Amino acid sequence: MARPLRYQIWSRHIGIIILALLLAFAGSYMLIRQYVLEQRTADLVRKGTGLSLLVAASRQQEDGYRELRQLVEVLDPFLDARIWVVDRQGGILALSGDMMPPAAGGMHFNHGDAMPHGRGMMQGQGPGRGMMRQGGARLAGPLQEVLQGQIVKRTFFHDFYQEQMLVVAVPVPGAEAGSIDGAVVLHVPLQGVEEWLQRVRWHLGVVAVICLLASLLVGQRLSRQIARPLENLRQATQHIAGGEYHRRVPVEGPAELADVAQSFNAMAASLEKSALEMEKQEGLRRDFVANVSHELRTPLTIIRGYNEALADGTAAEQQRQQYHALIRDEALRLERLIADLLDISRLRAGVVEMEKERILLQSLVAGVVQLVEKLAQEKGLRLETNFSEELFVYGDGDRLTQLLLILLDNALRHTEQGAVRIESDRGADGRAFLRINDTGHGIPAEALPYIWERFYKVDKAHSRDGGGTGLGLAVAKEIMNLHGIEVEAASIVGAGTSFTLRFPPDST
Question: Helix, strand or coil for residue 239?
Fold first, then answer.
């Protein structure tokens, strides 16, 4: 079983922190050690250089060797180093600490022996000559470098002192320019430095432990901040997969995770909208099938009933004529219904052939008014038109005629008295618009969003009496969609309804 994401993030965080602390600890310790040794070496070089000048000056003294021994003894505590003064042959002329390494053949340095003075005092005539080759065997090589005028710096295990030493050898200038008469060798035990570095390591370790503990707390909190949004996303995804499209996740955590949460919520909202739309479409489909079945069954039932009445021969002549008229009306209703259904299907599928052209809007309206004028006269209604200027629109003349005919027929059928007014003008945006106003029954506000749906009827009884199929406005809507026409419907119950058609900019 896989571990939770929070623990995976936390464990990897801790692993990285531990590795980083180890590298930082080792790197810091090495840098501190190198810095300390470099500073100590530089200090010894400075002190050795000053001491070499004092040694060179001591040769001018009458008792130069004794003065040299006293100088070394006096400077030893201040230099914090063990001092050797050697001649050109490696013989020890002076050594701090009242100690002399044993000479070859078992000879010992005698403090009371006089050291010759003058120009040859550093030429190896003093006691202890050759002792560097035994007690300080490691200086035999570096001594040659010192005698060439170089400052030698070494760290090694000293055979004489039997411990790790930092050794700095500085050349002693001779009487002649450029000449070297020997060397001053300073020895510093590294034990003190290592003890100090040990304390540094301990302090660095304490700091590393504190940093590790702090990292544990920070890592735990960080893992929760990262894992919690991801866990919320996982749970929300499972719910959405189960059909709960209303699920959302909190927008929290780092910016990247917050962006993911926002994108997820946007996706969920889109899925919810799509699901609702699909559910609505499925409901419309069921309603459409039911409505079609009802609309087809009703006239067919009427036709069959009256046809049976005619077939049995019991109806009088007057009734027979009436039955024939009813059968004809219902047949026409079926024909209109089928034609409207075919129109909607073809318009939605985009398979209709349209020949778009530039059409004078006033001429288009005048032609439609002539078609519905008889119906207006039968109901005693006025048809009024008002055009501010000549306006041209771009579209299919037959389909636009069908559109206006549907809207005017609908207005006349739902108006009992008053007038139907058609007006056109140019809006503030320069687009042509056409408005159809009637003084009819009006449409309730809650019904306005649904008037464009198939078989939707505000007044079902009146619609049947008026011969409507419930598909007219649905057909009109499809025609408007094909032409890019925007429609705005407004109505007041008992006062009338207004349809405003706004044509696209390229229509004028």
Answer: helix
Q: What's the mean pLDDT in 330-349? A: 75
The per-residue pLDDT for range 448-505, each reduced to its tens digit, is: 888 887 777 666 544 545 555 667 888 888 888 888 899 999 998 888 999 999 999 8
Mean pLDDT of the chain: 77
Residue percentage of the chain with pLDDT more than 90:
5
Q: Which residues pair with 387 in a beta bridge?
A: 424
Q: b or e along 462-478 (b: 16 or more beta carbons within 10 Å of the residue's beta carbon)?
A: ebeeeebbbbbbbbbbb
Q: Which amino acid is at 115?
A: M
> Is the model more confident about 69 or about 140?
69
Paired tokens of 183: 């060397």
> What are 113-137's pLDDT values in tens digits?
323 333 333 333 333 333 343 334 4
| Highest-confidence segment of 3-7, 104-108, 180-184, 349-353 | 180-184
Give me 43's structure tokens: 């200090």
> Does domain 5-103+112-196 sit in CATH 1.10.8.60?
no
Q: How far is CA 389 from the centre of its chain?
A: 56
Using an 8 Å Cβ cutoff, are 178 and 147 in contact?
Answer: no
Across the beta sheet with 382-387, the strand order is: 382-387, 419-426, 432-438, 496-502, 486-492
Strand order in the sheet with 92-95: 92-95, 82-87, 180-189, 163-173, 152-158
Number of Cβ within 10 Å of residue 445's Cβ equals: 11
DSSP string, 171-190: EEE-SSTT-EEEEEEEEEES
**154 and 146 in contact (C-beta within 8 Å)?**
no
Q: Is the dihedral of CA 459, 465, 470, 473 positive or negative?
A: negative
Strand-pairing partners, residue 383, are: 420
Domain 354-507 has CATH 3.40.50.1000: no
Core vs surface per residue 10-20: b (16+ CB within 10 A) or e? beebbeebeee
Task: Give the residue-averaged pLDDT of 224-240.
Answer: 78
Fold of 245-352: Helix Hairpins (1.10.287)
Sequence ranges of the domains in the chain = 5-103+112-196, 245-352, 354-507
